[in-house]
Amino acid sequence: MEENACFRLFSADGHFIASCADPLQSALMVAALGHGATIRDNLFRKDVLWTEGSERHAADANFKYAIDTLMQRRLIRRTNPKLDEQSVGQHPPQEE
Predict the structure, then answer these.
(1) Could you tell me which of 17, 33, 28, 96 has the C-alpha nearest to residue 61?
(2) In a domain, 74, yes or no
């Protein structure tokens, strides 16, 4: 699964927890891990795509928002590899 995984999950203290290909499963797991847990891009491993407790909504409060945010930030980073980590996190998806 590691080679197909798009996301890597880390605990609040930075320990690697799991790799996951599905953004919904990633959101479920980061919500379970709680405040400070992160989802990072598997390709650009230092890039934090989601930090539980620091986003507009908790992952388990709005899974659609969490998934949209993950996918948009991942796309931005992969299409603009020279962007720094903060630039990626400053582009939340537009609310409908």
Answers:
(1) 28
(2) yes
What tens digit of pLDDT does each residue of 45-91 get? 678 999 999 999 999 999 999 999 999 998 888 888 776 655 555 44
Regarding beta strands 7-10 and 38-41, do their DSSP bridges make them parallel or antiparallel, or are they unpaired? antiparallel
CA distances from 28 to 77, 87, 96 (A): 22, 25, 22
82 within some domain: yes
pTM for this structure?
0.79
Say if CB 50 and CB 43 are below 8 A apart: no
Measured between alpha carbons, how far is 66 from 4 in angstroms, rounded to an integer? 20
Domain holding 57, by residue range, is: 7-89
